[in-house]
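TICKET: design request
STATUS: open
ATTACHED STRUCTURE:
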């Protein structure tokens, strides 16, 4: 997976500990930074694909990512139609 997007993240201006908080207030602080980040979506997909369990990635907490993965697992696969 291409990770060149990481160099554009707003997180590059913050200490890494900001995105690995120990409390809910810290999570909200990190999420506010992520809210306007230009690479929020690829960051989230990276965390989901690599099953990253800790920290705030793409504006989501660990719990939110677990819910997203569960929802994706439960949603039916898209139907592929063949054109003849």
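STATUS: resolved
RESOLUTION: sequence designed for all positions
ATTACHED SEQUENCE:
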């Amino acid at each position: 997976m291409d990770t060149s997007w990481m160099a554009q993240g707003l997180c590059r201006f913050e200490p890494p500990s900001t995105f690995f908080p120990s409390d809910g207030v810290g999570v909200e602080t990190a999420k506010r930074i992520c809210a306007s980040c230009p690479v929020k979506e690829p960051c989230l997909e990276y965390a989901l694909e690599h099953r990253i369990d800790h920290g705030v990635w793409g504006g989501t907490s660990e719990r939110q990512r677990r819910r997203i993965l569960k929802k994706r697992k439960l949603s039916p696969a898209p139907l592929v139609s063949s054109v003849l």
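CLOSING REMARK: Helices lie at 24-35, 40-49, 62-74. Residues 11-73 form one domain.
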